[in-house]
Design goal:
This protein is an alpha/beta fold. It folds into six domains: 261 residues, 3-Layer(aba) Sandwich (Rossmann fold); 83 residues, no CATH class; 228 residues, no CATH class; 82 residues, no CATH class; 172 residues, Trna Endonuclease, Chain: A, domain 1; 114 residues, no CATH class. 33% of the residues lie in helices and 23% in strands. It contains 32 helices and 40 strands. A hairpin with a 2-residue loop joins β31 and β32. α1 crosses α4, α4 packs across α5 and α6 packs parallel to α7.
């Protein structure tokens, strides 16, 4: 099959025009120079063997180039370059295009356009690495027929620079046709700074060559080549490399990447957000495999290291015991921090931080008294690693098969890619070269054969008689190959896969194989669908029909970049005719992760911000420059009708930006504030009058604001209100009388029967404790992305139980003693008395957490039975002046209700029940004053402080006054409440009894009336 190319994609044409139009007005011409024959240079004769060299020639003035550049940037909504940034002698431009959107295709088309329009015939593509070099060369090969059709069968030549084929460099200089050279930066970045350096330390390109009669570099420089820099953040990562590129004597240089470190004269931008929203790349799903309820070992994952002027710090993910349960949290640690103290878990005994080593590429942390060394991204103490890897492989296969059911009938072949760090995990060899499956290949075949037996996959495998005999044909490895002698016969050699760095000669052969097999892998004629490859070869993979990517990272390796991983499968897929298929309903890439999808999304957004410079939720002063004001009809230079677009422009964009800052919609750095989100939500955005006259202009501005503001849910800060004191009520005799009945403080004491408590705990554990084993949970969510940030939607979950013995049981008696404050003797009685202790080994941590909850609940109930409150002295009370001294805030549209009978002008309510009750208090003729008790009004209980809801004065028809406190929970039945809430209310009742008042539970005035009439 052949991959088909579409030459009419508008975004690619815009990217091409962004560079070609820089030279609008350029004459179509060339520069000529003489290339002498080696014999002439030696003997000053044989003139007939000399040749003419052909190079590029620029005729435009610097002013005209700057004018063109600014017009292009204006139309593309980019910050305009200024005089001094565009230098005619060092033309340098940038194109930003997201991975998978056709960056290579765009710059190849740009080269053809520059040649056909302006005669620029000499072009060099500089690449940073072997895999990218092979990828570019493959693109030149497969686009040749397509490009010749687009450009009237134009004749052009392309080649990869090879120091053993220097005649190609001479041809590059002397051919009058279009010439394209692909060269690795390492081929010419050594020792060029010393023109007389012909030592072997220098690249061959810098050395004089007898057969050429020149240094190869000198021939190249004479052509004044147009330079394309592929991935400049790597290609020109050092000052030496930048100098090497400039030494090529370029007419102009254009940088192409998705992740520029430096954006010089940015001409076109199609970033990660743009590409995702326009569906120019695959939709991304992240599938996360996580463990739950299996916290039986010292789990530690190294997330991040920070180096500062002081001591380095490390961010660790740990299992922390708090309030009766273990939860996985990230904490920052420094040298000498004791993880046992930080986590309150004995499993971390001996894990005292020793060294935090932050050298890039070799980050790790180690500990005193422990042998473990944990590298960046690595974790120890998780469940059996094989179980996690099995789950990852199994879910990848299942996602693959599910997609095949949908995509196979559409002629789209599904591929899955597994990246591993050790070849032996996939394939092993004995001394004579006999092949056996490694661990991952064994897991794959077992899980694959198990999954395809599901009835839902009958349509895929109905005609295959013996699936087991063909399973080895559906997966294979792409690794670098070496040879070694057989043990039984030293004269015979066998080939074997080997681990490599990704930059060796053996790797170059592997990249060639990957590229040459690209079309083969897309065809149904090939049974190969699951591919295992070395993680070091990641850059070489760029197949459009990769729909699943699973990285089976081994311990001890640095963290894999999520964008690098995702980039391998972002391209839109092709069908059996080689045609690109569009739409996210077809194009969805599933990335398997061992971190939670929430962490994946958070880290993915951070990587986008770090690598691309995108600032989510931030406007720039040029954000509105490309707003279209008017499209007018004009005639071109030849009198043909055409159109011209009038844009808002940079000056007006800055003016609008400054206005948004002035009204508080954004800060001085352009970061969107909640005030803008509120205005957008209410449809009341404040814009200067001159920007509101044209509805089309307004719509474009509002759309830009909405995209940047994102989808964040906010509280209406503009409606936040300080609640004022109602002095008339606060100072009234009736309220003072009410306050006198409720203001006093108390203390409490507790008596209880420990033997009775032990029996209650045993009975409760036997009847209530439910223990399940740990689980592997698979969570999948679809990434959302816009100018406001990265999010996730459509989250689904499924889980499977973990089986296996726990290596080390925690000290259950010590845990329970610490968390319940019961004596060791009582704990032992409870554990030996219950029938549930046999479940302890199934899931020790869950067993402990369950026992803590049940014992504490029984203690609460038991304590309440024996609690006694006593009023403190007359001087211990809540002062009425606190209503004036303590500020109270609420939100007008969500939790404030006007009041004429309480000490505040508004009641701040916490629920619909409280809102309705406040309204009834206002309307009731029997209630003259009441108060929603503020949060500073607290009653001490053994279960923590308690804040009752209301203080109420009731007058009956005979003007008799009753004073009481009302608790308005969601039910009038105490047994419908949670035990802790119920116990606190019981304590509250005893408190108010001790100070001579009463407390009731009510949800309406009718409930209060019924209480009064009893």
């Amino acid at each position: 099959m052949k991959i088909q190319f579409d030459g009419a994609l508008s975004y690619q044409q815009e990217a091409i025009d962004a560079i070609v139009d820089i030279f609008k007005g350029q004459e179509k011409c060339e520069s000529n120079f003489t290339v002498y024959s080696p014999s002439f240079l030696a003997q000053q004769q044989n003139l007939e063997f000399n040749e003419t060299g052909y190079g590029n020639r620029l005729t435009l003035t610097e002013g005209k180039i700057l004018e063109n550049v600014q017009n292009i940037q204006l139309g593309n909504g980019l910050k305009p370059s200024i005089r001094g940034e565009v230098n005619r002698n060092e033309l340098d431009f940038t194109v930003e295009m997201e991975t998978g959107t056709g960056k290579t295709y765009v710059y190849l088309r740009t080269i053809l356009e520059l040649y056909t329009k302006f005669g620029f015939s000499k072009h060099i593509i500089v690449v940073p690495s072997i895999p990218i070099k092979e990828g570019v060369f493959k693109s030149l090969q497969i686009t040749k027929e397509h490009l010749r059709e687009l450009y009237d069968n134009v004749n052009y030549n392309f080649f990869v620079y090879d120091s053993s084929k220097l005649n190609e460099v001479r041809d590059f200089a002397t051919n009058d046709r279009l010439e394209i050279m692909v060269i690795n930066i390492d081929a010419f970045s050594k020792s060029f700074e010393n023109p007389s350096d012909d030592k072997k330390s220098a690249n061959i390109i810098h050395r004089y060559n007898d057969s050429l009669g020149y240094k190869p570099l000198d021939l190249i420089k004479n052509t004044n080549p147009f330079i394309i820099i592929d991935e400049p953040q790597t290609t020109m990562s050092t000052a030496l490399r930048k100098k090497a590129v400039q030494n090529l004597n370029p007419l102009a240089m254009v940088r192409y990447s998705a992740t520029h470190k430096e954006k010089v004269n940015l001409m076109y931008k199609l970033d990660a957000v743009d590409a995702y929203q326009k569906k120019l790349v695959k939709q991304i799903e992240v599938g996360s495999v996580q463990t739950e309820g299996a916290n039986t070992q010292a789990y530690i994952r190294l997330l991040e290291i920070k180096l500062s002027k002081g001591f380095p710090t490390a961010k660790l993910e740990l299992d922390i015991f708090k309030q009766g349960s273990v939860s996985r949290k990230a904490v920052w640690v420094k040298q000498n921090d004791d993880l046992q103290e930080l986590t309150d878990r004995d499993e971390y005994e001996g894990f005292i931080v020793k060294d935090i080593y932050g050298v890039q590429g070799n980050e790790y942390i180690d500990f005193t008294s422990r042998e473990e060394i944990i590298r960046l991204g690595e974790a120890i103490g998780n469940v059996d690693d094989r179980q996690v890897k099995t789950a990852l492989i199994s879910k990848t296969i299942e996602e693959h098969l599910d997609k095949e059911i949908i995509l196979n009938p559409q002629g789209i072949k599904v591929l899955s890619l597994f990246f591993i760090d050790t070849v032996s995990k996939y394939r092993m060899y004995d001394e004579d070269g006999n092949v056996t499956n490694g661990e991952y290949a064994e897991i794959f075949e077992k899980e694959y054969l198990k999954l395809i037996k599901k009835p839902k996959y009958n349509s895929l495998f109905g005609e295959i008689k013996d699936i087991e005999s063909t399973v080895s044909q559906i997966h294979n490895g792409y690794f670098s190959i070496d040879k070694k002698a057989k043990s039984s016969n030293k004269k015979e050699k066998f080939e074997y896969f080997k681990d490599t760095s990704g930059n060796t000669n053996a790797d170059e052969d592997t990249y060639n194989l990957i590229m040459s097999d690209k079309e083969m892998l897309l065809s149904f004629d090939s049974k190969l669908r699951f591919i295992f490859s070395h993680s070091a070869l990641k850059e070489g993979w760029d197949n459009p029909n990769v729909f699943q990517i699973c990285t089976l990272k081994e311990a001890g390796n640095s963290e894999i970049r999520r964008r690098q991983e995702i980039g391998r499968g972002l391209r839109l897929c092709v069908n059996q005719e080689g045609e690109r298929v569009y739409g996210h309903e077809v194009n969805t890439l599933t990335v398997m992760a061992t971190e939670s999808y929430v962490d994946f999304v958070d880290n993915f957004q951070k990587e986008i911000e770090t690598e691309t410079g995108i600032k989510f939720g931030v406007l720039a002063s040029h954000s509105f420059s490309d707003v279209v004001v008017e499209i007018i009809n004009i005639e071109d230079e030849e009198g043909n009708p055409t159109t011209d677009t009038i844009y808002l422009g940079q000056e007006k964009s800055v003016e609008l930006f400054n206005h948004l800052v002035a009204v508080g919609y954004i800060d001085a750095c352009g970061k969107v504030q909640d005030t803008l989100r509120i205005a957008l939500k209410d449809g009341e955005v404040n814009l200067p009058e001159e920007f509101t006259e044209n509805p089309q202009v307004v719509n474009q501005i509002i759309n830009t604001l909405k995209e940047t503001a994102g989808r964040l849910e906010i509280k209406d800060a503009s409606k936040k209100q300080l609640v004022k004191v109602n002095k008339m009520i606060l100072d009234s005799p009736e309220f003072r009388e009410l306050w006198e009945r409720v203001k006093f403080k108390t203390t409490f004491s507790v008596n209880f029967d420990s033997e009775k408590l032990v029996k209650q705990c045993i009975n409760a554990i036997d009847s209530q404790l439910k223990i399940t084993r740990g689980k592997l949970t698979y969570t999948k969510g679809t990434l959302t992305m816009d100018a406001g940030g990265v999010g996730v939607s459509n989250v689904v979950n499924e889980s499977e139980t973990l089986y296996g013995e726990v290596e080390r049981l925690p000290d259950i008696i010590g845990y329970l003693q610490n968390e319940t404050q019961l004596t060791r003797k009582s704990i032992v009685k409870i554990l030996t008395g219950t029938n549930r202790l046999r479940h302890f080994k199934a899931n020790p941590q869950k067993f402990i957490e369950g026992c803590v909850d049940i014992i504490n609940e029984q203690m609460r109930m038991h304590i309440i039975d024996g609690i006694k409150y006593q009023r403190l002295g007359d001087a211990e009370f809540y002062s009425q002046e606190l209503f004036e001294n303590k500020e109270l805030f609420g939100y007008l549209q969500s939790n404030l209700k006007e009041s004429s009978k309480s000490p505040y002008t508004h009641v701040v309510y916490d629920s619909n029940i409280e809102s309705k009750l406040a309204q009834q208090f206002e309307e009731s003729k029997n209630i003259s004053v009441y108060a929603k008790l503020p949060d500073w009004f607290k009653i001490d209980t053994p279960l923590g402080t308690y804040n009752p809801d209301w203080a109420v004065m009731w007058k009956d028809k005979d003007e008799e006054k009753l004073f009481f406190v009302v608790e308005s929970k969601g039910s009038t039945g105490l047994f419908d409440l949670r035990p802790k809430e119920q116990a606190k209310i019981d304590c509250g009742k005893k408190h108010f009894t001790a100070i001579g008042s009463e407390m009731i539970v009510a949800t309406s005035v009718e409930d209060v009336k019924n209480f009064v009439l009893k």
